[in-house]
Amino acid sequence: MDREKIYKEAVKFRRYFHQHPEVSMKEFRTQAYIVEILKQYQIAYTTYETGIIAILGEGKRCVALRADMDALWVQEDTGLSFSSENPGVMHACGHDMHMAMLLGAALFLKAREQNLGGVVKLVFQPSEEKRPGGARLLLPYVMEAPKPEAIFGQHIFPGLPVGTIGIRSGAFFASSDNIVFTVEGKGTHAAMPQMGSDPILAVTALIQFYQTIVTKFRNPLTPAVLSITSVHGGTANNVIPDRVEVKGTVRTHDNELRRHIFELIHEKSPAICDLYGCCFVPDMFWNGLPVLVNDSVLTGQVKRVGEQLPVVDKVVEMDPLTLGEDFAIYLEELPGAFWTLGVCAPETGQMSPLHNPGMSPDERAIPVGIEMLVANCLEYFSS
């Protein structure tokens, strides 16, 4: 099968995935479609929950390539002829593109199976969007024999034009953890506050303290974000409630700082709440993702490969991103590299961002993504 035919097949795959999106751990139809393609091209596979690991090639060396599968709870507003047929669910993060490009790479590699120089594991991972994440589900199986020596992955990026690859050595994507807790007090009439203890006041003090964590308890040269995004408590204007529920997020590019932030939250929060006669009740901390850290040697390889590919216009050094990505889980166990793939039409220079109802990547990026996956796999085996 020649290149152009594979590119066209990959576009067909992408449009199917986009039209039939499924949320985390519900990717049953998506899995079945991928399995049918793998069967058609006689590529061996094993399913794990709604995920798939396919294997081709032979030899002592092994490389893994990964794509995520799940969609988001977003109502699509793109006007595409192949828009989502699942109301309220959309591939607004580009995982439809990721799967299609990995399948396209699989067809390339299958045609060269006898001369690959090693084994390729094709990892179709569910539940990237939902914590604790599908990477933790599949990691034990990815690590089974033959164990990969390296892993590669990519993510579409609306901030870059088609033909551009973005990458960074070391810390690239941020850690991503949830803050979820409840403050319990004693409800009372708002006109008689002395009869109770006000959890809203305690939460206010907590939020103020949390902001000092990122301003006064860290090196200012180390990026970090702590945002409280949801505060729910009370139902009436004249009633102090019994409890307030709070949610937020923490992002950083330093795993040691990540640990220290949550140590401070656990250590100081109960005492702050006690000042107001309230109780701090934590929920799930440390339920997120570590920093995504690219291997320096493999990052160099990705740069060289990209600069040599005809479909790539340029490779750019990216600034650290505050986005979270569970590919970081694999990189805690394996050396690897993760890059961003430009999907913005160069003619306009504008497109909707990730997780937006209007997010519509340019399909001209599909050949670029396929070639990057294939070329980095082959380059690794030849080194």
Overview of the structural elements:
Helix 1 runs antiparallel to helix 3 and helix 7 (296-308) packs across helix 9. The longest helix is centred in the C-terminal third of the chain and has 20 residues, at 255-274. The protein has 383 residues and is α/β, with parallel strands linked by helices. The chain has helices spanning 3-19, 28-40, 95-111, 134-142, 199-216, 255-274, 296-308, 327-331, 365-382; strands spanning 44-48, 51-57, 62-68, 119-125, 150-161, 164-167, 170-173, 177-184, 188-189, 224-232, 239-240, 243-252, 279-282, 292-294, 314-317, 336-344. It is built from nine helices and 16 strands.
**Helicity level:** 25-40%
Distance between the termini: 26 Å
| Biggest beta-sheet profile | 8 strands, mixed
Strand order of the largest sheet: 1-2-4-3-5-16-6-15
SSE order, as H and E?
HHEEEHEHEEEEEHEEEHEEHEHEH
* Mean pLDDT reading: 96
Please tally the β strands and state the result. Answer: 16
Q: Which class do the helix and strand fractions yield? A: alpha/beta
The coarse silhouette is elongated
Spans of at least 5 consecutive residues whose pLDDT stays below 50 are none
User: Radius of gyration, rounded?
Assistant: 23 Å
Strand portion = 25-35%
Number of helices: 9
Short summary:
With 383 residues, the protein is of the alpha/beta class. Helix content is 34%, strand content 25%.
Topology:
Elements: H1 3-19, H2 28-40, E1 44-48, E2 51-57, E3 62-68, H3 95-111, E4 119-125, H4 134-142, E5 150-161, E6 164-167, E7 170-173, E8 177-184, E9 188-189, H5 199-216, E10 224-232, E11 239-240, E12 243-252, H6 255-274, E13 279-282, E14 292-294, H7 296-308, E15 314-317, H8 327-331, E16 336-344, H9 365-382
